[in-house]
Amino acid sequence: MTTQATGILDPTAGPVLVVGLGNPGDRYAATRHNIGHMVVNELADRNSQRWNVHKAGAAVAEFRLGIGGPKIILAKPATYMNLSGKPIAALLKFFNIGPENLIVIHDELDIDFDNLRIKRGGGEGGHNGLKSTTQALGTKDYLRVRAGVGRPPGRMSAADYVLRPFSSTEHETLALHIDRAADAVESLIEHGLTVTQNRFHQK
C-alpha cells in the first residue's frame, strides 16, 4: 500500500484509516488534547458525513475522497487517550488495512501552536495515545499529522495543559489550524508524504 523507501501513501491500493486522537465526552471536547478529534470532525463535515458507532469501539465515517477516489475511514476512538491502540488495531483488522495505510492526527507539545509537522514512524514523545497505538500495532511505522499546541506556560504540567481549552488568543486562529491539518491529511492521501511535508512544513 505504500512505497516503504519513501514513505509515500498509495490510497489506490486500499482504504485509508484516518484516526483523530482525543478523549471521549463533552468535558474534553474543546481541550488541546482533542485537536485530533477536531480535525477528523472537519474532514467529516467537508464530506457531509455523519458519525456511526462501530463495534471496534470507535465512531466512524466512511466515504470516498472525490469522484472515484480512494475509500477513507475516519475514526474517533471511544476510549480514553491512553487506550487508543485497541480500537485502532480492531479497525485495521476489520477493514483489512495495514498500518502503512494508517494516518494518526494528534496534539504535539513540542511544536508551536498553529504549526504542523508530518512524518512516518519515530518515537512517541511521551504521548500516551501514540504509545498505546504503537504497542497495539507492534510497529511505529504509521503516518502522523502532528498538530502543534505549544509548551505549557510557567510551571504548569503538560498533563494539565493539554486537558485545558485553547486560550482566547489561540481561538482566533484555531479554526484555521484545524482546517490546515485537514488539508494536510487530504494531501497525504492524494500526493504522498514528501509533497505534503514540503507544503505544510513551510509556515
TrEMBL record:
Superkingdom classification of source: Bacteria
Q: Which sites are catalytic?
A: H33
Q: Which InterPro entries match?
A: Pept_tRNA_hydro, Pept_tRNA_hydro_CS, Pept_tRNA_hydro_sf
What is the stated purpose of this protein? Catalyzes the release of premature peptidyl moieties from peptidyl-tRNA molecules trapped in stalled 50S ribosomal subunits, and thus maintains levels of free tRNAs and 50S ribosomes. Hydrolyzes ribosome-free peptidyl-tRNAs (with 1 or more amino acids incorporated), which drop off the ribosome during protein synthesis, or as a result of ribosome stalling.
Q: Which UniProt keywords apply?
A: Cytoplasm, Hydrolase, RNA-binding, tRNA-binding
Similarity-based family: Belongs to the PTH family.
EC number(s) on file: 3.1.1.29
Q: Where in the cell is it found?
A: Cytoplasm
Q: Indicate the annotated site residue(s) for Stabilizes the basic form of H active site to accept a proton.
A: D107
Q: What is this protein called?
A: Peptidyl-tRNA hydrolase
Its gene is pth
**Main location per UniProt?**
cytoplasm
Organism ancestry: Bacteria, Bacillati, Actinomycetota, Actinomycetes, Micrococcales
Q: Which PROSITE patterns match?
A: PEPT_TRNA_HYDROL_1, PEPT_TRNA_HYDROL_2
> Which residue positions does UniProt flag as site: Discriminates between blocked and unblocked aminoacyl-tRNA?
N23
Question: Does the record carry RNA-binding as a key word?
Answer: yes
Organism the protein comes from: Yaniella flava
Please name the NCBIfam families in this protein's record.
pth
Quaternary structure, per UniProt, is: Monomer.
Q: Which reaction does it catalyse?
A: an N-acyl-L-alpha-aminoacyl-tRNA + H2O = an N-acyl-L-amino acid + a tRNA + H(+)
What Pfam families does the entry give?
Pept_tRNA_hydro
